[in-house]
Design goal:
2 copies of one chain form a homodimer. With 216 residues, the first copy, chain A, is an all-alpha fold. In chain A, 68% of the residues lie in helices and 0% in strands. The first copy, chain A, is built from 9 helices and no strands. At the A-B interface, helix 8 and helix 9 of A face helix 8 and helix 9 of B. Chain A binds a DNA duplex (30 and 30 nucleotides) through helix 3.
DNA sequence: CGACCTCGTTGACGCACCGCCAACAGGATG
DNA sequence: CATCCTGTTGGCGGTGCGTCAACGAGGTCG
């Protein structure tokens, strides 16, 4: 990815050049955070003039958004097959899959968690929110619910909170080393099971923010 | 706080001046995020030369850290009295207190959550981590445990994950409006109760990352 | 009451970074 | 080989931040 320097004015296809610059940006932003990386760094890593970065990506922030999108989708490797069995077994299987996945791409996943910090920027928040919703969809399919696509329901809200929980728990395992893998597994799977079977039914029976008393 | 402009070269006590600038910084950073606010903005809001901000706080980032510290501690209003009754009742009371507290200072709390985003900066992460640990201590006292001060135990790890869960759930209520207050209450209290009575005991009985098999 | 001293405060300088754009040149075409 | 298209360059203008020497408000002392 890192072009060996010195070659001047090499003319590439726009697509290839764009991918190359994006790759360098992913590598740098994945390692060092938004304002520790300058567009000059990225251009240098790609062996390219600084202006070209703006030419392909407009603004530094726009480039960053694309990088976060990449970081958030790469470690996904989407859970395609829903495990069999009762709910407990399915949750267990999905937890195993999840922990395997992030253990395999630890660096990328941790980088994604670091970069995908829903700060104040609304565009960045939107990108992260989209990734969250996708995760919620997975959990819903896991629970055997057809995901009313993207309703602002209490069900989805509770699961979004769970996603934050799961991420934090996984960070405890992978980054801080304060949980073993087995402990993390128990923490995530049991909490999700309880949430789905006990807590959420109660929540859904209570009156919502303004509408749907028992819609999910 | 916002000094009416034009007054030139007014000489204050260092403490007062420092507090004044910090106040303006809190107001601005609370509303607009790190790189949407320039030190010139802060200086202007305080009716002061830009250089003075650096004189009192060194770097813009150091100032930001102080602001986050303020934002994280202000909405605390520390839970002093532990409710009576069994665990369920105590958790219930504490949840009520928590939701009351953040409802009272919604703006400040949301601002704090926006600012206290554990991005890549290690110093910022440290400030946030400290606030998290304080919250975990509250929960531990709630559960009747004497908080082994700051051990890297699986117990604390699980509770840190819960803190992320609670914050996310509260945001669903306050910001997105996807949960009613009652629903949020049920979500937070029941999840914490289950965590304390069912999940954590199981976790603690499993082998840890390397040590304490059943220490908490 | 005026000279003097202290230290809070100022304004400007240097530097790094970003967005923009006119000019340049690689390489395909005829 | 001449010509055109367009990917690419390098520099210009503007902004924001950290530093520093100089300034002056306000108290002190003779």
């Amino acid at each position: 990815m890192s072009t060996s320097a010195a070659r001047r004015r090499e003319r590439w296809e726009p697509d290839a050049r764009r991918r190359q610059i994006l790759g360098c940006a992913v590598r740098l932003f994945g390692a060092r955070g938004y304002d520790e990386v300058s567009t000059a760094d990225i251009a240098a890593a790609a062996g390219v003039a600084r202006g070209l970065v703006n030419h392909y990506f407009g603004t530094k922030k726009e480039l960053y958004l694309e990088v976060v999108r990449v970081l958030l989708t790469v470690p996904d490797t989407a859970l395609t097959t829903i495990p069999d069995g009762d709910l407990t077994a399915r949750v267990d299987g999905a937890t195993t899959w999840f922990l395997d996945a992030i253990a395999r791409h630890t660096d990328a996943w941790v980088a994604a968690m670091g970069a995908a910090t829903p700060g104040r920027d609304p565009d960045l928040a939107a990108v992260i929110a989209e990734a969250d919703e996708a995760t919620v969809d997975v959990i819903l399919r896991l629970a055997g619910r057809t995901p009313h696509p993207r309703a602002r329901s209490p069900l989805r809200a509770a699961l979004r909170a769970y996603v934050a929980f799961a991420r934090s728990g996984a960070m405890e395992w992978l980054v801080h080393g304060s949980l073993s893998r087995e402990q993390t597994h128990v923490l995530l799977s049991r909490t999700l099971t309880t949430l789905l079977t006990e807590t959420i039914p109660v929540i859904s029976s209570r009156s919502g923010p303004s509408e749907q008393p028992g819609s999910w």
